[in-house]
Target: Neuronal cell adhesion molecule
Amino acid sequence: MEKRRMDAALLVLILGHLAIALEVPLDLPQPPTITHQSPKDYIIDPRENITIHCEAKGKPHPSFSWTKDGTHFRIEEDPRVTMKPHSGTLVVDISMMRAENYEGVFQCTARNNHGTAVSNNIVIRQSRSPLWSKEKNRPIVVQEGVSLVLPCRPPAGLPPPIVFWMDNNFQKLPQSRRVSQSLNGDLYFSNVRREDSRNDYICYARFTHTQTIQQKQPITVRVLNQAPMDERKPTFLIPPGSSSSMRVLRGHVLEMECIAEGLPTPEVSWSKVSGELPSRRTSFLHFNKTLRITKVSESDDGVYRCTARNQFGSVDHTISVSVKAAPYWISGPPKNLVLAPGENGVLTCRASGIPKPLITWTMNGIPIENSPTDESRKVEDDVIIFTDVQTGSSAVYQCNVSNEYGYLLSNAFVNVLSEPPRVMTPSNKIYQVIKNHPALLDCASFGSPLPKITWFRDLSASTLNGDNYIFHDNGTIEIPVAQAQNSGKYMCVATNALGISKNHVHLEVKEPTRIQKQREKTKTVQKGRSVVFECKVNHDETLFPTMTWLKDNGELPDEERFVVGSDSLTIVDVTESDAGMYTCIMNTTLDHDSATTELNVVEAIPEKPDPPTDLELTDQTKRSVQLTWTPGDEHNSPIQKFLIQYEDSLHHRGHWHNLTEVPGTMTTAHLKLSPYVHYTFRVFALNAVGYSNASSPSKMYKTDPAAPDENPAGVHGIGTEHDNLVISWKPLSNLQSNGPGLHYKVSWRQKKLGAEWATQNVSSNSKFTVSGTPTFSPYEIKVQAVNNYGAGPEPAVVLGFSGEDLPIGTPDNVKAVVINSTLAKILWDAVPHNSIRGHLKGYKVYYWRKHGMHKHNPDHMEKDILSFSGNHTHGMLPGLHPFSAYLFHVRVYNGKGEGPPSPTQHFKTPEGAPGPPTSLEVAKTDLDSLTLNWSPPLEHNGHITGYTLKYQPVNNSNELGPEEELALAANETSVTLPILKYSKRYKFLLSAKTSSGAGPAVSQEAAVSDEGNTQTSHPFAWSPPLRPLHKARPMSPFTNVTYSLEEDGALISWDYWGPEKNIYVEYTVDSKGVEDWQKEPANGSQNVKLKGLKVGLSYKVRVVAEGHHDQQLHYKELFVTVPAVASRQVDIATQGWFIGLMCAIALLILILLIICFIQRNKGGKYPVKEKEDAHTDPEFQPMKDDDCTFVEYSDNEDHKPLKGSRTPSNGTVKRDDSDDSLVDYGEGGDGQFNEDGSFIGQYSGKSSCRDNAEGPESSEAPSPINAMNSLNSFV
Model:
């Protein structure tokens, strides 16, 4: 056996050079090749459609089929599965099906008439994120210092979840050497402290495939407030015992952990007993508790030791690691073979693994031992040897390498072709390379037999060879060190027995990119100054470099202070944070270069800068000049800007003027100049400290005169009189004049058709008056600047107006709309524009209060004025006096003044709230009473309808007691309050009222003493302050004198517009005998109540206005008759007792009718039992003793309800608020239901019954028993 293996190896060495792997062009016949497939372990998302990839190429294009769990998968029979066109990729629609139905092992087959390729076994599994099992976590109570493990135990998901611990605020719990999370997710405490007490230890599991996070129920830990546990040496919590073992696969990650408990907290260290730890692949995690080794190899097999140590001792644990290996390729998977008829070749499947894997071969998916015999093929373990192959031997061979830890499956085809050579590299391809770098020129080709490649330079007939060139097996030629002389045209020739193929390529050798090295490797700059890094580069002229700047190998700060130029970096206003390493990188498409400089920033004391020097004028033209200068020393503070000034020695010798400013980074300025000026310039520099001194003046530069460039600004035309127009403007400065002989050409014309321009030249002035103009007429105006060298540009036309005159028009349709007692709206029509004779400024409303409409206010002729600017046609008049008559007119006004008034109009304001009573006095009359006297309000603001008196006791702490309120008649001016306690202090508030409401109150405080006198704390006060009284003129005598009868007297009311103040009511019994007149004063009100009138009598009543000498100037007489039963007559039909009596009578009649109805149904015609038997209608059920259901016995006539009777929908009659109702006795929710659904309640502890309601649509007559039960509630 050993000899056979040696022979096979020797044969491979002999035949290996005869064939190499080639990429077959797709236009040539070839077996299928799998180009893309899903991974072996394919975990799918159950929420998305399943896509299983299988792509292949071949000529002809292959067809595809699938197996599932080893059997043919009939795609056409499953409507949810589709295969993409020209592809083997499957798409499974799981919208109507569970994804788990498609779990299993899938394998794709791609075949054409040259062979069959198969994919890996694709294991489809659905990702799972199961819910956490429900559990109740009891609080964990521990003593301080003990160890503790909080279990996580997340649900087993697919793939397994990522576990982490957080609190209620979604903040990660802090971990340390003392507290850390293990690899399985549990939280370990080497020892607990009191600060570990909390109720929100929450373990979270994040399922990455479904992007879901689930949480465990919070765990509560309470650390007892007691003496802590004793200090102790470490012991391991995990792994248990002194040793353990584990297995890891080659190429995977090895993670070992040791978590120890102890007090104080132990430290963990790691070592390898049987060797050294691989430093480049080793890391320590979780505070040294986890040892992690990546890319495990066979050398990592061995024994590892973890040691936990504190001041009381140490403990060791050894872990024996065994490294196993799934199969892996030694020299890569087998490569495709393209052979010409009669050629030899070898397929090699060289792999390894621990344990050693088993290698099996299949051809076109069929075990090779079951395939047709081929004399040209020989299988020797991990190789297949082909000798003298013939056309038709093409096939796909599968090599399967497997052991208990996995498998490798590779497809490799043998394609027997006869093809002349073809060069695959694009024709005339240009290769660019940097000088002194390797140059690789490709000549990819295909042919069967394998073509031979030869290279030629330009038109040379000799082949390239020698030490200057390296020839690769794939046809590429390499020039190890390219030089400029290597540039040029190259030709490769591919030859086999069937033909020849040529191709040309070009090589361009470029000069390298090099940054000019700076002498300074370090720059030191003072804080606040600027620094410049230069990055000048030499490069090939055909390459275009791009510059990139880095600070400390990162991007530059995104600040305006960093200015990147074409070949430099400037940092202005340097700060301490700018210190660091600055790198310039120059990149081209072929190479790059870089240079680095370190920047140091030091502190500096700033001073003002030195003045600029070396002022020079260049690029001189008629209107501009270039000024350059050299900046002075900045003195530790960057120059912010330069100020340029000029002196005009022609017009203002000795006066310097600011001309312009430029940034501090510039040293030149392009200055725009004016004609006819003798310029001298100087420059100032400004930094954070201040301005420098002025530079030395520059040489004088004279500009030639010219016509003006501009015309005067601020042109206006305004008349000062009604017949003139004054034209004014802002004159030009000397700098603007541009030359000698400056004057102004003033032009004007009336704005109307056919008007001609009038012109006047004006010198040494900035205004001109045009006389004899019509009043307020529009004019077009122009003012042009002119000097000895010509006129300025055509001026703009400005609109002006001649002088205004007083308006002659008046507003029409003037009227007033009263809004409320203090506000009115005035409306008018606008005055025509031609009657205004000027600019409309607005309207003025003159208004004055003629008189108040209560009693005898004198005339008040003082006028108020309100102006409404603009073209208004209405305005509001606020602050009016209630219950008053007003006169008003409206005037229009312009800039000259006011026009004539409109016709005077008038309006009246309605009643308003009155002012406070004028006075309130307190007088003592008895030991337990007070008498209050008061005077009516000065401002009635309407008819006084009465007074309201409120009073409250006041204790020694100035706290108010309960308030009493008393309504008083309008003609009363005093009142006596009885039953007041002596030695008590009282507060009184008195207010008057009109029909509009009550006014402000006047207050007074007084105490009742046992001596019978009154102690007044203060006189009186009122709020708000009274307005000044307006005097009114008398108008007319009494009007609207009326009376109304009330229970306590007759109320006499009137309106009076006379000047007299003394108004009273006198009355006497209407008889033919002597008249005994009695007086009732009005006291400022306009109504008086006459009390004590006798019923059945008629009275003569007069309302009298009395003059100065008790002379009756005006009176109004009326007759008042008091009926015998004036206030006692009532309508009996509206009285409650009468309505109740009628209801009782109706109720008795109803009871009698119901009793008769019952007696008729229970009459002695036949027994109840016979009547029960006589009825077979199922609607009528007899009453049973146990359920108290009732039945109605009647013939068809008796069964009908009483005419006009009604029954509530629930079949009961209920009286609201009855003390004896069924509701009160039934106790609501305590009722029960029978088997037939009827309700059972309790009535006085005995069984009672209620019939079920038939519903609102029942036409059945009410039950007599229900009627009786309902009557019980009324009896």
Residues 1136-1161 form the longest helix (26 residues). Confidence is low (pLDDT under 50) at residues 1-20, 1017-1036, 1126-1130, 1163-1275.
